[in-house]
Amino acid sequence: MTVGSDTKAALVTHREEAQRILDRLPVVVFEYTLQPNGNRDFSYINPRCEEVLGYTQAELLSGVHPMVSFVHPEDRSSFELVLNEVMTLKTPFRWEGRILGKNRTVWVEAVGVPRHDDDGNCIWNGVITDISHRKSLERARLEIEQRLELGLRSADLGLWDYDFRTNTTIVNERWAQLMGYERMELEQMFCHCEDFIHPADRPTYEKKIQEHLQGQTDAYEVVYRFQLKDKSWRWILEKGQAVERDAHGNALRTVGILQDFHARKLEEESINESEERYRTLIEFLPIGIGVHCEGKLVFVNSAACRIMGAEAPEQLLGRNVLDFVAPEFQKSVVNRIGRMMKGERVPHLEEKFVRLDGQLIDVEVYGYPYEYKGKPAVQIIVRDITGQKMAEEAVLKNEVLFTQLFESSPLAVVMLDNKGKVVKVNKGFEALFGFSQPELRGKGLNDFIVPDNLEQEGNELNQLISGKQTIRLQTKRLRKDGAELSVILLGVPVSLADETIGIFGVYVDITEQKKLEDELKIRNTELDNFVYKVSHDLRAPLSSILGLVNLARLPGNQDNPVEYLNLVGDRVKKLDGFINDVLSHSKNLKMDIKVAPVDLKAIIDKHFQDLSYMPQAARVSYNVNVEGDVFFSDPWRISEVFRNLISNAIKYLDPYKAQPHVDIQVKITRQSARIQFRDNGVGIEEKDQSRVFEMFYRASDRSAGSGLGLYIVKNAVEKLGGEIKIKSIFGEGTTFTISLPNYPQP
Fold it and tell me: What is the CATH class of 409-509?
């Protein structure tokens, strides 16, 4: 049976269509065959292999280059593991790693699915996708600053900036090198660059530029041929945008990028395989492929069906392609289709498709002009990137969250590089230490906040953290103004690929806490002393009383009992006075301030009357002079101050002076009261004056008092927000000067 001429023509047409589809795929398409005898090699690979690997079809199909020979040595073990598994189990596979081309190393993703033919061969149909760009982005997220700097140096992109006001242009050095010009030459050419654009491409270029400058487009993108210095032509992709306009909308400054587009414009070698093989290859490719003509889908492969949730191609064929495009992307898709129908190449696009079940998915779409049965059509390649987009959004969200946490944290946070230099500090750090980020960036932190005596500690800590140790310690650090802070330091290493790339430090200010701890220690010491002294001073009179009682009870004791009672009474008075002082001290510490009008003259008179029982009190004369406004304060505490001062003046009067005297002068303003309490008693020696306000301190052994009087006075004055000073001359007398606030009228 022979095949008719019409059938042959149809087969040729189908074969050519399949061939054109594969020719335009932006990925390496392969067929890898495992024969029953164990022989294995490529049985088909498309011309895209030369762009990825640097080897031609003929070289790869010759069998002299085993597949493993292209795998990077560091990735070979993982590749062989996957290869052995799929060869044994005859299962689909996916592998990601680096391959060695003739001229470069490329990150790729290889996927394939198996099938079996009638000859017992196991055939894997699949694609190899260049993922170098995606791999560079993944690493870039971890090293943002390094990626940017490296990208500008090595991305082979042309960067330009044109100022209409000065008619000047800035072009990056790398692009000048790629075009064969000196940088200055290229910058001078920019203002009349149309002269170097191919005549056939010039109208489109000028139209795009004018539309954008007139404000008709937000940005422009155009592909054209540019004449290199050696007079050859090269396809260029240019994207630009006006970033500054005047009040009338006239462009003042434009910026843009230039990309070598030559490779994409070259025609790929034709494929001389049968229509059946190409059809099989396309059908088993793990990427979605479709063709639409006059707005209707006329071809879809199995992968496209899976992406769109269809069980069979018939569910998709014949439907308007816009039925599967999310509404917000339909306008741009229509525009792209119109351009491709005119023969234009358009860049790939990320958009959203609507599956048959109504679910929205993120897709990456490539579109190419195509001819279907003599009619203009569009070939599309679709990749489902929903998972990738979700991952990117999660990473971005985490980056934003980290940045917000870093900047808004009330704690002092610093990021150092692996050499201990400051990369970034937050506002909490600036507030705590007083140094701004510009002052610290790129410098060693130890030179600023580490005290000289802790310099060795700072260096050792950086070494420990760089060695992947997390540290936490309490130490000292310095503010910019020289103040010393007590801090808790948390240092954490930041690692990438098992290598420490920086240090993350957190400082918690515990200066006030340390002050409180120190004050607490002092208070505890005071409390211990207070308890000891109180217990001692309470036991002394009680022991004396108990001794007198036992003495009076002795058999045959003929002493007058009245004498014992008088002695016991003296001890009881002493004990009562001591207890009253202790209670007064406790009350001063615990009781809130109660503001009321204070009659100082009345308080002073009352205490002189109440203390008249004291020995020699009758000899002491006093004078009180109060001037000024009404005084508002705590009456009880004011009374305690004068009770103790008057009591001391009586206790320590000079017995050799004819007239012991106390002079009290008070001046009151609306803001404060100044009290001067002066006596002509025995005075206090200079060596004792600094300690007279200490608890239980007695400057003289003349008195059997508690030693709490002046301590109570000072605490009461300070509780009221005031200040007390002493000036005394031994043998002449003592003067107390007290300053107190005049509280607002309640």
Answer: alpha beta
